[in-house]
Amino acid sequence: MSGSTATPVSAGVADLRFGLTDYTVFVVMLSISAAIGAYFGFFAKAKNTTDEYLRGGKKMQALPIAISLVSSQLSGIAIMSVPAENYTFGFTFIIAVLAMIPAIPIIIYVIVPTFYDNNIVNCYEYLELRFNKRTRQLITMTFILNQFLMLPVYMFIPALAFSQVTGVNIHLINIVVSSICVFYTMMGGIKAVVWTDVVQAAVMLISVVMVGVLGTMRTGGLGTVIEYATEGGRMHFDFGLDPRLRSTVWSSFGSGLLLWIGKISLDQSCVQRIVSLPSYTHAKKSLLVAGVGFLIIMFFNAFAGIIMFARYYGCDPMLAGLVSKPDKLMPFFIQDIMGSLPGMPGLFVSCVFSASLSSLSASLNSLAGVVYFDYIKPHIRHTEARANGVMKLVIVGMGGYCILGGFLVQNFKSIFQTMWTITGINLGAVVGVFLLGMFVPRVNGKVAMTSILFSVVVMAWIIINAQLNIKAGLVKYEILPNSLDQCEARGLHSILKAINSTTISLPTTPATTTTTPKRITTAFGSNRDFSVYDISFYWYKIIGVFLIFLWAVPMSYVWRKDKTEKQNPKLYSPFVRRMLNVSDTVEEPEELPLKQTERENDVVQDQ
């Protein structure tokens, strides 16, 4: 199919290339990002310390941090692949978005107070205080592994969008944009990351709102969008309990809840932003604003997939051969509805780049800090200048790795499913062990460490075998049907012209092509005997948390805590402290600033 893409695009859709205005908008956006890095790196630089580089001297403001948190969660995967997910499999993903509503109170009142009460500046430091050094190292290893797997994906998505609308070699784009991101992250530190995020968030908000409004208008209004989406099965919400169903209300909500808790409050790239605020009160305000902002942008972004389906209901550009895979649908759709508006396609591609640059820069900055303090500092003579130099080298090295990783990412069939699967390996274990430390006082370091190993190894085994089942054709996620029989009636003459200019056949749906019964698991059911390897990737994070507690609770009675060991009650969640009737004489979290202490810099990080 990819081989027949170029001809129809040029023959049938006249607007599917960037114009001068689009290039101008795009270049301006990248120039602003680079300029912010140069400003904080050369002209507005404060003390050359790790605290300034990683946490902005703990003097960041609540609103920029809130905007930065929103930006960091809206990677190019969200902008490109979430609409594609809703286009192909329906609107169920909105349930995962709505899981942010309970996630924010959990983060604010359960997790963040524990960090502030203990002056935590690195979320993994908590695990060392609560359990032991090995537990911390094990989790930081999973963090580093996850970043190695995800960073090339973050960067490849915008290159994919740019290539779709310009024809420029995708790997050349990857090199240029990765270099710009590495430059401003390396030079400006966390301040450059945050303020670049603010600019990029503005671009994202304008873009997704315009896509929603213009797309709805071009499709015939909101009523028409809902009508076509309902007729096409995209508004169906499955409440089934079979874990093999690709996406249900239950799996979407549970997986989304754990994803937001894990990514916002237990991932150093976000925790680093939160603890750069001067107090818990500032953090609470910032998280509330971030939650509202995330819901607004992600609703528009997810609904864009439904608008996109309504636009192409009965005239699917994938079946027509104009788009090779779902992840390329969004740029095609943008140029279809906005191609006549100068600069609009450029604004959207800038939106995709903004989202990916935000995720990439945050991950690079936090990864450099974790690698240095946990794995390099204990083995060298530490100075502030040397630390900053080493962290910058780590960022440059990872930028080069992202460029090389793009050659592998281009072979992925579904970026969204790939991302959800990769995070399923360890995110459940990460969330589980933090909750274990905050809610189960009887668990010690040995139990915690072995529970992490148990969860990660079991999840890796399940996921590897699941991928083998997919490769063998035992699990096949065919998308919801669409057709090509209404192109003329819908007035989509550009797509019809492209179809007529090729010799491709006109199937009505890819879901009805099988001629002989076969025992397989599909997105919507299974006729196979139950196998844990057929379970949907949406359940992976939930299973990972369950495995932590499945191991830890009984083993806490086998490997009991040393009765002479005194545990700091502030390491438990505030709710647990009240249940234990622990008297707490420290300041209330609202009044407690996150202070730089000698323990943070030398004792903990040196261990």
Average of pLDDT: 79
Number of helices: 23
Distance between the termini: 55 Å
Give the amount of beta strand, in percent: under 5%
Q: What topology, given as strand order, has the largest sheet?
A: 1-2
Element string (H = helix, E = strand): HHHHHHHHHHHHHHHHHHHHEEHHH
Q: Structural class of the helix and strand makeup?
A: mainly alpha
| Rg measurement, Å | 24 Å
> Could you state the oligomeric state of the chains shown?
single chain
- The tally of strands reads 2
Shape: globular
Biggest pleated-sheet summary? 2 strands, antiparallel
Account of the protein in words:
The chain is mainly alpha-helical. It contains 23 helices and two strands. The protein has helices at 6-12, 20-43, 50-55, 62-73, 76-89, 93-98, 100-117, 123-130, 133-166, 170-219, 222-231, 249-265, 268-274, 280-311, 329-338, 344-376, 384-409, 415-439, 445-471, 493-500, 540-558, 574-579, 598-606, and strands at 521-522, 525-526. It has a two-stranded antiparallel sheet with strand order 1-2. Helix 15 (329-338) runs antiparallel to helix 16.
